[in-house]
């Protein structure tokens, strides 16, 4: 059994949807959970408080945080809620999210800024104070939430896709900086019928993409047993897979001395754009190590 006894978790945007189920599952497996969300139900009651009540009624331990992830002050207070109630933070799931869909040419500055603020800046604002605690204790598990929209694109979601891919960029550097502290960071691209996707999926699909079908992978990534870091996982309806940034085998044209022409590139463009035998790399240094062509690998 995967167990979170003596572990403290923070889940942002956990009042509803996918995050709520992450919080319930971690609590069920013994974690003390800070349920963060700025949202309210139709009755005006905080959704985070409702999830906390649900956890406590089931015999678990939890505390609510109603701060927004979009400011450093909010991030600091979310982490302080964990410290005040449970004394530490071992696990952080950055899950809070919003959509402001509009085709790119009609998108307003506010629609752009609001989405970047919650997803990308929010990931920074909460993760930095949480890492401060994790580093000191030489232990941490962090999960970021990304999206197939960032990885592959979706009509009307340029702001959202940019924010989600920004998180991947953040993670790829962060994994290198925190490796020595025994802190693992990974990203998941979930799929579920939730408030966020209301009206998007037809009825027969909604039944198959319940929020809880995303939870097992995230629970595992948050566990001590997970030793992977810097990976991206895609999931939907019980299907789980790794996604990755890959580079193709490419073609070496020059000799590092003479100038290469655009015509030489044109002649080899099919090979340059080919992803045959493409590989993911651990870090950028591996691809760009100075003057070492990769065609031999
Ligand atoms: P949801 O709307 O049900 O839940 C998101 C929660 O985040 C809400 O409860 C909302 O109140 C909260 N939130 C919004 N802004 C916040 C802020 N500033 N501070 C704190 N909380 C805030 O949506 P969901 O579908 O459960 O989405 C969860 C995550 O999964 C999001 O990051 C979303 O982008 C991502 N995602 C969802 C899907 C999907 O198919 N549902 C697909 C890809 C990615």
Note the gap between the termini.
41 Å
Q: Please, what is the average pLDDT?
A: 95
CATH topology label of the largest domain? Rossmann fold
CATH superfamily of the largest domain: NAD(P)-binding Rossmann-like Domain
* Strand-residue proportion: 15-25%
Look at the helices and sheets and give the structural class. alpha/beta
- In total, how many domains does the architecture comprise? 2
Q: Which small compounds were modeled alongside the protein?
A: nicotinamide-adenine-dinucleotide
Overall shape: it is: globular
Number of helices: 11
* Backbone CA Rg: 21 Å
Query: SSE order in H/E notation?
Result: EHEHEHEHEHHEHHEEEHHEH
Largest sheet: 8 strands, mixed
Helix percentage range: 40-55%
The total of beta strands comes to 10
Walkthrough of the structure:
α1 (17-28) runs parallel beside α2, α3 runs parallel beside α4 (109-137) and α4 runs parallel beside α6 (158-178). The protein is an alpha/beta fold and 297 residues long. 40% of the residues lie in helices and 15% in strands. The longest helix is centred in the middle third of the chain and has 29 residues, at 109-137. An eight-stranded mixed sheet has the order 3-2-1-4-5-6-7-8, sandwiched between helices. The chain has a two-stranded antiparallel sheet with strand order 9-10. The chain has eleven helices and ten strands. It folds into two domains: 8-243, Rossmann fold (3-Layer(aba) Sandwich), CATH 3.40.50.720; 246-294, no CATH class. β4 (91-94), α4 and β5 form a beta-alpha-beta unit. The protein is globular. 39% of the residues are buried. The structure holds nicotinamide-adenine-dinucleotide. Residues 12-13, 15-19, 36-39, 47, 68-70, 95-98, 118, 145, 147, 189-192, 194-197 line the site of nicotinamide-adenine-dinucleotide (NAD).
């Amino acid at each position: 059994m995967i167990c979170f006894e003596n572990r403290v978790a923070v889940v942002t945007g956990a009042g509803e949807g996918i995050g709520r189920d992450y919080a319930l599952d971690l609590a069920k497996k013994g974690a003390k959970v800070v349920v963060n969300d700025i949202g309210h139900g139709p009755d005006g009651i905080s959704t985070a408080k409702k999830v906390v009540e649900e956890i406590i009624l089931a015999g678990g331990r939890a505390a609510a945080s109603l701060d927004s992830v979009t400011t450093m002050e909010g991030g600091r207070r979310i982490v302080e809620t964990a410290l005040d109630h449970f004394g530490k933070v071992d696990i952080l799931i950055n899950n809070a999210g919003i959509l402001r869909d509009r085709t790119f040419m009609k998108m307003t500055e506010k629609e752009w800024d609001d989405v970047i603020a919650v997803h990308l800046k929010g990931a920074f604002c909460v993760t930095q104070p949480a890492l401060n605690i994790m580093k000191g204790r030489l232990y941490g598990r962090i999960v970021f939430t990304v999206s197939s929209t960032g990885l592959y694109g979706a009509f009307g979601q340029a702001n959202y896709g940019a924010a989600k891919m920004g998180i991947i960029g953040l993670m790829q550097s962060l994994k290198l900086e925190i490796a020595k502290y025994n802190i693992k960071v990974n990203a998941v691209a979930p799929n579920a019928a939730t408030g966020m996707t209301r009206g998007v999926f037809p009825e027969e699909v909604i039944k198959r993409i319940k929020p809880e079908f995303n939870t097992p992978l995230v629970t595992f990534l948050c566990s001590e047993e997970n030793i992977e870091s810097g990976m991206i996982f895609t999931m939907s309806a019980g299907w789980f897979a790794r996604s990755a940034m890959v580079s193709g085998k490419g073609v070496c044209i020059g000799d590092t001395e003479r100038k290469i022409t655009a015509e030489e590139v044109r002649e080899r463009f099919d090979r340059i754009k080919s992803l045959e035998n493409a590989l993911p790399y651990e870090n950028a240094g591996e691809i760009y190590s100075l003057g070492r062509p990769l065609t031999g690998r």
